[in-house]
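dumping this here before i forget
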Amino acid sequence: MFCSLLAVLLVVSSTLATSLEKRQWTESKYCNPTNGLCYLQIVPRGTNPIYRIAIPDNASGAFDTVLEIVAPITLGWAGFAWGGSMTANPLVVAWPNGQKVTVSSRWSTNRVLPTVYSSATYKTLRSSRNDTHWSVEVACTGCSRWSGGQINTSGLAMFAWAQSRSAVSQPANPSSNFPYHNSVGTFTEPLTSAKNPASAFATYIRTTSG
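structure:
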């Protein structure tokens, strides 16, 4: 009887923990009427950036990815981790630079300022800044698989985000130092909503440049 009660309590506790974690973000499928691409859209709780991820429907092993960040103008920079951690996976950090957005590929082996990472390359597809928001969309080669890990396209995939209200020291320089983050978080979701027909996905990356 005690064992049965313990088992029930463990299930309830696990379900509650999952529910509490889930409330840290909202998830939806977003399809852009302009480019026809569909994304997994993640909105962390609070006034944090919106993150949108798109991949080809035949994604396996090494493949290109697309990430869009839409951030309130009050943020100095926003970051995204493809493997769900600050360390040992590709990071992208973006910040406003005039009316455009600078994108920096980074990697960290410890909880210190991430260094420039040349094994992941980003192509800026679109970037803009107005009175309320700045946004950038990039295609990445080298973000789906890395030394020690890869994105899970058939089950749950974990990602992480970070942001700061402070501006970077050299906005035009992708190698610039940037201040410590004000908040961070992770989210875990299947990438079903992020999948697009492979040919259309590849064409969009090839023919778009911002």
